[in-house]
Design brief:
By secondary structure, this protein is of the alpha/beta class. The protein has three domains: about 5-235, ANL, N-terminal domain (Rossmann fold, 3-Layer(aba) Sandwich), CATH 3.40.50.12780; about 325-400, Roll (Luciferase, domain 3); about 405-500, GMP Synthetase, Chain A, domain 3, CATH 3.30.300. The chain contains 15 helices and 24 strands. A nine-stranded mixed β-sheet has the order 2-1-10-9-11-12-13-14-15. Helix 2 crosses helix 3 (about 65-80), helix 4 packs parallel to helix 5 (about 115-120) and helix 10 (about 255-260) packs across helix 11. The chain is globular and about 65 Å long.
C-alpha cells in the first residue's frame, strides 16, 4: 500500500537545502526545515511512547506558536488524530468537546492546566501536557528526551488525520472527521490552482485551530516548501511592515478591512506580492474594490467549510477574479445547486449548494444519523449554503439555509446562544440574529423577552454569557423587548429582526 500519510507528502516537499529558513517568527526566531524534521520526529516519538490505541485523538488548546505546528505535524507523523480547539473556549465548551471526543492526549496552556486537567481526567484522558507560546511546557520537556529519528506511520487515505468541531443548526457541536486523503488531495489541488512556486513566502497571520489557518495556509506553504513569516496574532501594522518580504497572504474579510485602515498599505508595500486570498466569510464588494484601488491587486476569493476544506476558487490565472463570487468548483469537486426537495435547478436559479469530491469529510464523529441526514442519496454533501451558478460558471453564495452568524470569520450558532439565554432566570424566550458590522462583517444581536412579572437587565445577560462562552460568541448588543415578531405558525421571524436592527452598527 502506498503511504498516504499527509505528513509524508508534506515532508517530501521540504527543499533540498534543509538548513534554509522554513519559518521566521515575529519575535525574531527562525526555524529551518531541518528543525521541523527533527522536532516533529522527537514529538512523534513521544506520542508513540505513550502506547496510544489506533485512531487516538490528540486534543490541543494552546496559543499559536511554531511548537503548536510541530505538535500538529507530529500527530500526523505518528498516525494519530489532531483535534484543535479555539483558545477562546471556556470550561463548559471544553467539557463538551473532551467528553465527546474522548482524546487520549490533551495539550493545554499551563495557565489553564488546573481546570482543563480536571475535565480531561473526568473524561478518561490519561495524558495531559502543557505547551506555552514561549517554548516551554511539559510536552517539550518530555519530547527533548526522545530520538530525533522517526519513520512516519503508514496511513491509508481514509484514515483520520483531524477532527474539527463545527456546530449545527440545532443541538451541540459535531466533530467533522477529515482523513489524510481529504487534506492531501485539497492541498495538492490548491498548490496547482493558486500557482505556488519556488521563492514564495507566506505571511501566516491566522489562528491555527480552523481550516483556514491550519490547512489552507499552513499546508499551502509546506507542500510547496515555502518559507512562512509567522505572526502569533494578527496585527495589521506588522503585516504591512512585512508585506515587501512576502508573496502570498491569506485572511478572512475582517483582516482585509483592518489592513485597509493602515495608511502604509500601498502599491509599493505590495510590490513583491503575488496573491491575496480571502475566504471563510463573504467579502464585501467595497472591500474587494478598495483593495484593488489601493494595492493594484485583485483579491482571490474562495469558499470552503470545516467539513470539506476548499470547494471553490476564483481563478489565479486564465480568467477574471469576480468580486462577490467565489469562482468555480475546484478540480475534482463536483458542485450543484438543488431545491430543498432535491430537484436540480437551472443556471442562475438560487438553491442549496451540494458538493462531492475527494476532499469531503468522512462524517460526523459518533453521529452516523446526523451524517446520513447531511448527505443526499447519491452521495452529495448538503453544505447549508444557498447560492447560484451563472452562465459563465461563477458561483455566488447568496445566503445560508442554516441559522448561522459568521463574525470575523468565526461561526456563531444562534441556537447555542439562545439556549444559554433561555436558561437564565426570568427569560421567557430569546432570538439571536446577525446584522451587518463594519469590522466583523456580521455581529450578533440578542433580542430577549421576559417572563411575566420578571425584570431583565440586558447588560447582566451579556455579562453572564461572557462568563460562560468564548468571547467571539457574545452578542455585541442585547435588547429586552415586549414581544418577538412571529408568523402565523408562531415561529419567530428572524428576517424582520435582522431588518429592524440592520443599521445598529452602521
Ligand atoms: C474577537 N472578537 C470578536 C471576534 N474576534 N467578536 C466577534 N467576532 C470575532 N471574530 C471580540 C472579542 O470578544 C473582544 O471583545 C474584542 O473583539 C477584541 O478581542 P481580540 O481577541 O483582541 O480580537 P482580535 O485579536 O482583534 O481578533 C479579531 C480577529 C479574529 C478578526 C483577528 O477574530 C480572527 O483571527 N479571526 C479569524 C477567524 C478564522 O481564522 N476563521 C477561519 C475559520 S475556517 P471584548 O468585548 O471582550 O473586548 C472557515 C472555513 C473557510 O471558516 O472557508 O475558511
Ligand atoms: P466553518 O464551518 O467554520 O468551516 O464555516 C464554513 C462556512 O463559512 C461555509 O458554510 C460558508 O457559509 C462560509 N464561507 C466560507 N467561505 C466563504 C466565502 N468566501 N463567502 C461566503 N461564505 C463563506
Amino acid at each position: 500500500m502506498k503511504n498516504q500519510n499527509l505528513f509524508t507528502a508534506l515532508r517530501a516537499a521540504f527543499p533540498a537545502d534543509l538548513d534554509a529558513v522554513a519559518i521566521e517568527t515575529d519575535n525574531g526566531l527562525t526555524y529551518s526545515w531541518a528543525d521541523l524534521e527533527r522536532s516533529t520526529a522527537m514529538m512523534a516519538n513521544l506520542l508513540q511512547s505513550l502506547n496510544l490505541p489506533r485512531g487516538a485523538r490528540v486534543a490541543v488548546q494552546v496559543e499559536k506558536s511554531v511548537e503548536a505546528v510541530v505538535l500538529y505535524l507530529a500527530t500526523l507523523r505518528a498516525g494519530y488524530v489532531f483535534l484543535p480547539l479555539n483558545t477562546a473556549y471556556q470550561s463548559t465548551e471544553i467539557e463538551y468537546f473532551i467528553g465527546n471526543a474522548e482524546p487520549a492526549v490533551l495539550v493545554c496552556s499551563s495557565r489553564n492546566l488546573g481546570w482543563v486537567s480536571k475535565i480531561a481526567f473526568k473524561a478518561g484522558t490519561q495524558n495531559v501536557f502543557t505547551l506555552d507560546d514561549d517554548r516551554t511546557g511539559s510536552l517539550l520537556d518530555r519530547a527533548a528526551h526522545c530520538s530525533d529519528q522517526h519513520e512516519a506511520a503508514v496511513m491509508h487515505e481514509d484514515d483520520l488525520a483531524a477532527i474539527l468541531y463545527t456546530s449545527g443548526t440545532t443541538g451541540r457541536s459535531k466533530g467533522a472527521m477529515l482523513s489524510h486523503g481529504n487534506l492531501l488531495s485539497n492541498a495538492l489541488v490548491l498548490k496547482d490552482y493558486w500557482g505556488w512556486k519556488k521563492g514564495d513566502v507566506l505571511i501566516h497571520a491566522l489562528p491555527i485551530f480552523h481550516v483556514h489557518g491550519l490547512f489552507v495556509a499552513l499546508h499551502g506553504a509546506l507542500i510547496n516548501g515555502s518559507k512562512m513569516i509567522w505572526m502569533s496574532k494578527f496585527d495589521p501594522k506588522r503585516v504591512v511592515e512585512k508585506l515587501p518580504e512576502a508573496t502570498v497572504f491569506m485572511g478572512v474579510p475582517t483582516l482585509y478591512v483592518r489592513l485597509l485602515a493602515e495608511p502604509g498599505l500601498t502599491q509599493e508595500a505590495c510590490r513583491n506580492m503575488r496573491l491575496f486570498v480571502a475566504g471563510s466569510a463573504p467579502l464585501l464588494i467595497e472591500t474587494f474594490n478598495d483593495w484593488k484601488a489601493r494595492t493594484g491587486h485583485t483579491i482571490l476569493e474562495r469558499y470552503g467549510m470545516s467539513e470539506t476544506a476548499m470547494l471553490t476558487s476564483n481563478p489565479y490565472q486564465g480568467g477574471e477574479r469576480r468580486g462577490g463570487t467565489v469562482g468555480f468548483a475546484l478540480p475534482g469537486v463536483s458542485l450543484r445547486v438543488q431545491t430543498d426537495d432535491g430537484q436540480p435547478l437551472p443556471l442562475g436559479e438560487i438553491g442549496g449548494i451540494q458538493v462531492k469530491g475527494p476532499n469531503i469529510f468522512k462524517g460526523y464523529w459518533r453521529m452516523p444519523e446526523k451524517t446520513k441526514e447531511e448527505f443526499t442519496a447519491d452521495g452529495y454533501f448538503k453544505t447549508g449554503d444557498v447560492g447560484k451558478i451563472d452562465a459563465d460558471g461563477y458561483i455566488t453564495i447568496v445566503g445560508r439555509s442554516k441559522d448561522l452568524i459568521i463574525s470575523g470569520g468565526y461561526n456563531v450558532y444562534p441556537a447555542e446562544i439562545e439556549g444559554y439565554i433561555n436558561d437564565m432566570p426570568g427569560v421567557a424566550e430569546s432570538a439571536l440574529v446577525g446584522v451587518p458590522h463594519p469590522d466583523f462583517g456580521e455581529a450578533g444581536v440578542a433580542v430577549v423577552i421576559a417572563k411575566p412579572g420578571a425584570a431583565l437587565d440586558a447588560a447582566q445577560i451579556l455579562a453572564t454569557l461572557k462568563s460562560t462562552l468564548a468571547n467571539f460568541k457574545i452578542p455585541k448588543q442585547c435588547f429586552v423587548v415586549n414581544e418577538l415578531p412571529r408568523n402565523t405558525m408562531g415561529k419567530v421571524q428572524k428576517n424582520l429582526l435582522r431588518d429592524q436592527y440592520k443599521g445598529l452598527f452602521a
